[in-house]
Design a protein that fits this description.
Distance between the termini: 62 Å
Shape: elongated
Number of domains: 2
Radius of gyration: 22 Å
Largest sheet: 8 strands, mixed
Structural class: alpha/beta
Strand content: 15-25%
Strand order of the largest sheet: 4-3-14-13-12-11-9-10
Keywords: Cytoplasm, Molybdenum cofactor biosynthesis
Number of strands: 14
InterPro entries: Cytidine_deaminase-like, FdhD
Helix content: 25-40%
Order of helices and strands: HEEEEEEHEEHHHHEEHEHEHEE
Organism: Paracoccus solventivorans
Mean pLDDT: 73
Pfam family, one: FdhD-NarQ
Low-confidence stretches: 1-68, 177-185
GO molecular function: sulfur carrier activity; sulfurtransferase activity
């Protein structure tokens, strides 16, 4: 199908779309033939046929800024004292809805770059399309976040397919499980995938040395990692207890830990949650949802994780290793901070 034909078919679908995302067709976002700014600030591509005949204006607009939490740690514990030395910038993270022919197929937390490639690759690997030529048009559009999540960077990657593929998409929607939304539009899906959480209570107050003890207990409890160093771990540490669970998935590892704590009647707010992985916004949400106030990880958290930890009242710690760590939010839970 030609670019003009694809655009006309797409506009007809959007004009008849009753979803609350209305207020303009997808084609209104970028005038045909104009360069669009990419999320990293570079000039985007003009409209034209890409590989496999894809008509693309997919470079996308700039990513909306998140809440006002600092991008740098509040301070760093060096093992002997506090300082304010520079630390690596946290990576960007955004909620990205994959929208195909006007229907949301999934919501991904992703680095907001090369999203046209992400959408096309997702469609291929998930079996939504058989070849790049099945896509007739593609866009990346910054959208207003859900009302309950005003600071959330939110984008839609919109793919439009050649006629005849819609039935397969509808069947896939009926059979899907997991963190997808209502299917009305990308914004609704994002709201469903990332519901707001209540602020956590004060909870356990840790000494700086407790962070090192928690990370040490996490390392010592990784029995499966010794056999196959391709596995994540989540641990709980308090002065009375150390508990570790492992899994190939970092989210699964945390869920296993939460289940183990619940089965034993242990309050997650009474200690430190420690993880071997980087800390993304979904892990922050899981931790806050169970009422734990301290989350420490071995890597730098994402910018959105920092923002949400600040909003949820959670103390977020990154680069916790060898007796040092970066403190990003709510220092009141670290004694002497």
């Amino acid at each position: 199908m030609t670019g003009a034909g694809a655009t006309a078919r797409r506009d007809a679908v959007k004009d008849n779309d009753p979803s609350p995302c209305g207020g303009g067709r997808a084609s209104d976002a970028f005038p045909p033939g104009e360069a669009t700014p990419s999320p990293d600030g570079r000039a985007g591509a003009t409209e034209g046929a890409g590989p496999g005949g894809v008509v693309s204006r997919a470079a996308g607009p700039a990513v909306p800024a998140g809440p006002a939490a600092s991008a740098s740690p509040l301070r760093r514990w060096s093992g002997t004292g506090w300082d304010l030395s520079d630390a690596p910038a946290p990576p960007e993270e955004a909620a990205v809805a994959i929208v195909v022919d006007g229907t949301s197929q999934a919501v991904l937390m992703a680095t907001p770059h090369d999203l046209d490639d992400l959408a096309l690759g997702f469609a291929l690997t998930e079996g939504l399309i058989a070849a790049p030529g099945d896509v007739t048009d593609a866009q990346v559009v910054a959208v207003a976040p859900p009302a309950a999540l005003p600071g959330l960077p939110a984008l839609e990657t919109r793919l439009w397919l050649r006629p005849g593929l819609a039935a397969g998409l509808a069947e896939r929607r009926r059979s899907m499980v997991g963190p997808v939304g209502c299917g009305l539009c990308g914004v609704d899906s994002i709201a469903a995938a990332l519901p707001p959480v209540l602020p956590v209570a004060a909870g356990y107050a840790a000494a700086p040395g407790d962070i090192a003890l928690a990370m040490q207990a996490l390392a010592e409890g990784q029995r499966r990692w010794r056999d196959t160093p391709a596995i994540h771990a989540a641990g709980f540490w308090s002065p009375e207890l150390a508990l570790v669970r492992e899994d190939v998935g970092r989210h699964n590892a945390l869920d296993k830990l939460v289940g183990a704590l619940a089965a034993r009647g242990i309050d997650p707010g009474g200690g430190i949650i420690a993880m071997t992985s980087r800390l993304s916004v979904d892990l922050v949400q899981k931790t806050a949802r169970i009422g734990a106030g301290l989350l420490a990880g071995a890597s730098t958290p994402t910018r959105l994780a920092i923002d949400w930890a600040e909003a949820a009242g959670l103390t977020l710690i990154g680069r916790a290793r060898a007796g040092s760590f970066d403190l990003y939010t709510h220092p009141q839970r670290i004694r002497s901070a």
